[in-house]
């Protein structure tokens, strides 16, 4: 055996300091610190070592993530937030972690982009498995059947005006006559399909996992004069930043509107203008500003006027176009998980939550005009506060998207219908609460407030 060479003056061996092995947690902390340091000048850090619980709440409401918070870093980003997130996300992918970027809360009036930043690291990346397509197909077929029923009923009403006996005979065996409802069914499904595919392709453009559209049938007569409750797609991954949130939110209504307006104009050109029999119960389709302008453009006068009105049920395409405008208006309401809520949140960030109670009050007032809004008031009471929160809330909208967001909110004003479906006696046509101009003064201050907050923000 060989002795070690002495390394001290007394010719005695030096006592070695044996370091304790580094734990896996410390290795992870060091790696996370190194990765975050590539995009941030770290000024403060904290790590969470507790194991996640089964019933643990999401890291932040609105993200839909049940992941466990691992670490929080505070400091200033070394480059723009969008690029910083892209770099950090690629690094964290190897660890199956994700980043949530936020500006720190400031009690003073420090501008948003000048605030320090926080990066929260959470475990688990969202990698959803593909879903089967057959439920989407079955729902589409059921919705096609339900809207064909509505369209066929409109066709039979037109036949009844000239040949009541024929209309009654056809109504007794309505299934073979469903082809008569094709104009309404094709027109409405084109609008709804374009709306949902607008969302779908915008999500796929940003590489988000998203389902195919789920159409919602409503084949029960008396419960729906539309034949459907619309359609929806489900995003299965959180959106990266406010740019993505805006693109996905606004793409649907804008795409649907591109089909709804031409279908409405063609339908109005086919619809008749006449007076209803005195004393008859009349169901009004409400006027939005855009719908009123469309009637002026096609018919050359404002209607209803002098007891005359467009008989929208005399043209299936007109009814489909009006329904498309209504669907667009409902989706563009600037609250919660609706498309308008996505646009508002992308434009204003957390300040969008301040509009919850004012909008709820407006909806309550609208319910006094039409029972149609009662369901929506209840729905917004439960879900109106939930917003789709992006992972990166530091990256702002670029100027082009800011302008498009404001234009989208203006479109909401143009297509909004204060009283969508109301019943009145024919003599009271001109007094029916159907003109959007009656509620426009209530909407414009809100739009002006949004624009002023955006310009200050």
| Low confidence ranges | 1-9, 51-58, 429-434, 436-445
Distance between the termini: 77 Å
Q: Give the biggest beta sheet.
A: 4 strands, antiparallel
Quaternary form: single chain
Overall structural domain count: 2
The share of residues in extended strands comes to 5-15%
DSSP helix count?
Answer: 13
In spatial order, strands of the major sheet run 1-2-4-3
The number of strands is: 10
Helical residue percent? 40-55%
Classify the secondary structure makeup into a structural class.
alpha+beta
Spell out the helices and strands N to C: HEEHEEHHHEEHEEHEHHHHHEH
Helix/strand layout:
Layout: H1 24-37, E1 40-47, E2 69-77, H2 81-93, E3 97-103, E4 117-123, H3 134-162, H4 164-172, H5 182-205, E5 214-217, E6 228-232, H6 242-270, E7 272-275, E8 281-285, H7 289-299, E9 308-311, H8 316-331, H9 339-348, H10 356-369, H11 374-383, H12 399-415, E10 421-425, H13 440-456
Antiparallel strand pairs: 1-2, 2-4, 3-4, 5-6, 7-9, 8-10
Helix pairs in contact: 3-4, 3-5, 5-6, 5-8, 6-7, 6-8, 6-9, 8-12, 9-12, 10-11, 12-13
A few lines on this structure:
Helix content is 47%, strand content 13%.
Characterization of this structure:
With 457 residues, the protein is an alpha+beta fold. It folds into two domains: 24-123, no CATH class; 134-456, no CATH class. Helix content is 47%, strand content 13%. A four-stranded antiparallel sheet has the order 1-2-4-3, covered by helices on one side. It has a two-stranded antiparallel ribbon with strand order 5-6. Helix 8 packs across helix 12. The longest helix has 29 residues, at 134-162. It is elongated and about 90 Å long.
């Amino acid at each position: 055996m060989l002795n070690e060479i002495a390394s001290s003056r007394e010719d005695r061996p030096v006592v070695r300091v044996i370091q304790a092995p580094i734990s896996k947690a410390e290795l992870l902390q060091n790696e996370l610190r190194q990765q975050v340091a590539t995009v941030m000048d770290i000024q403060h850090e904290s790590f969470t070592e507790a194991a996640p619980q089964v019933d643990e709440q999401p890291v932040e409401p609105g993200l839909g993530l049940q992941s466990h918070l691992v670490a929080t870093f505070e400091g200033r980003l070394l480059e723009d937030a969008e690029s910083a997130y892209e770099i950090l996300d690629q690094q964290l992918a190897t660890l199956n972690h994700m980043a949530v970027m936020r500006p720190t809360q400031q009690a003073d009036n420090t501008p948003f982009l000048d605030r320090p930043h926080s990066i929260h690291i959470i475990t688990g990346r969202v990698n959803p498995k593909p879903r089967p397509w057959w439920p989407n197909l079955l729902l589409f077929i059921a919705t096609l059947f339900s809207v064909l029923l509505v369209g066929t009923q409109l066709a039979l009403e037109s036949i009844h005006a000239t040949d009541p006996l024929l209309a009654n005979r056809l109504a007794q065996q309505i299934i073979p006559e469903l082809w008569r409802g094709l104009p309404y069914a094709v027109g409405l499904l084109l609008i709804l399909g374009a709306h949902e595919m607008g969302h779908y392709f915008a999500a796929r453009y940003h590489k988000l996992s998203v389902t195919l559209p789920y159409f919602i049938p409503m084949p029960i007569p008396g419960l729906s004069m539309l034949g459907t409750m619309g359609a929806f797609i489900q995003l299965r991954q959180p959106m990266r930043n406010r740019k993505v949130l805006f693109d996905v939110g606004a793409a649907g209504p804008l795409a649907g509107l591109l089909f709804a307006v031409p279908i409405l104009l063609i339908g109005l050109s086919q619809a008749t203008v006449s007076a209803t029999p005195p004393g008859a119960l009349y169901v009004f389709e409400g006027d939005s500003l855009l719908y009123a302008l469309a009637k002026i453009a096609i018919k050359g006068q404002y209607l209803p006027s002098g007891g005359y009105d467009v008989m929208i049920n005399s043209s299936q395409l007109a009814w489909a176009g009006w329904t498309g405008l209504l669907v667009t208006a409902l989706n563009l309401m600037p609250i919660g998980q609706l498309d308008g809520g996505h646009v508002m949140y992308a434009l204003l960030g957390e300040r969008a939550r301040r509009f919850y109670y004012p909008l709820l009050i407006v909806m309550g007032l609208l319910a006094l005009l039409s029972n149609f809004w009662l369901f929506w008031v209840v729905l917004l009471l439960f879900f109106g506060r939930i917003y789709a929160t992006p992972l990166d809330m530091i990256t702002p909208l670029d100027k082009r998207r800011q302008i498009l967001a404001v234009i989208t909110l203006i479109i909401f004003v143009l297509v909004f219908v204060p009283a969508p479906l109301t019943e009145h006696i024919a003599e009271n046509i001109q007094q029916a609460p159907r003109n959007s101009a009656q509620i426009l003064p209530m909407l414009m201050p809100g739009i002006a407030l949004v624009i002023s907050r955006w310009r200050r923000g």
